[in-house]
Amino acid sequence: MQHKRLVFDIEMIGEDFDSLDVLTKKDLMKHLPDPQAQPEVYEQELQEIKDKLVFSPLTGQIVAIGVYDPDTDKGAVYYDANNTNPEDTEEDGIKYVAMTEAEMLTKFWTLAEITEEFVSFFGRRADAPYMAIRSAVNGVRPTKDLISNRYNSSSQRGAIHWDLFDLLTFYGSAMYKGSLHRWCRAFGIDTPKSDDMDGSKVGQAYKDGEYLKIAKYNAQDLRATAQLFEAWQHYLNN
Fold first, then answer.
1. What does pTM read for this prediction?
2. 3-state secondary structure the chain
């Protein structure tokens, strides 16, 4: 009997640095050089701090969670539309539903309860821990452990989570790495990344009110990840 599988991916944005409280700013800036002695370096490193707020669940939030069943070619992207309340839509088997972050996480963990296998790209180190912390912040309890059991041993705790970043680098033993875009390019898979949209542009897209654009970008990530997983299964899975 085939296990129920779910490909998942998230999109995040960082807080506005200027809106942070004084103590948080001070903590983030404590290692910056003297702005008087090294003004250019100071400004460069300060900008790096602002750009990296998105990568911490302490200074960022989830604005889209995508889920996709590769066996039925159907899925959904739950996305934050900043209280604009757009109507639900569907395109190419993917439903787009606007929700708050807490509602997104609740929906994901409800689906996770009935899922045996999860597929992601870099999800064990990035998406899963981020979702776990943002869930706790929102008062939502995760239903599956997607972080432990890295080698998917049946004798270990945790869900079966196929993280393609781990699988394709042979759990870090290979000398190379690579982004999802580079892996897709190598395998001849249509890449979701473009000059118009990639993960680094999600924050600006959200500011510009392009909420559905973010959701559709997430859907492209889901399908690309699913195709890459299929290639790994066919040619590399022992």
1. 0.94
2. CCCCEEEEEEEEEECCHHHCCHHHHHHHCCCCCCCCCCHHHHHHHHHHHHHHHHHCCCCEEEEEEEEEECCCCEEEEEECCCCCCCCCEEECCEEEEECCHHHHHHHHHHHHHCCCEEEECCHHHHHHHHHHHHHHHCCCCCCCCCCCCCCCCCCCCCCEEEEHHHHHCCCCCCCCCCCHHHHHHHHCCCCCCCCCCCHHHHHHHHHCCCHHHHHHHHHHHHHHHHHHHHHHHHHCCC
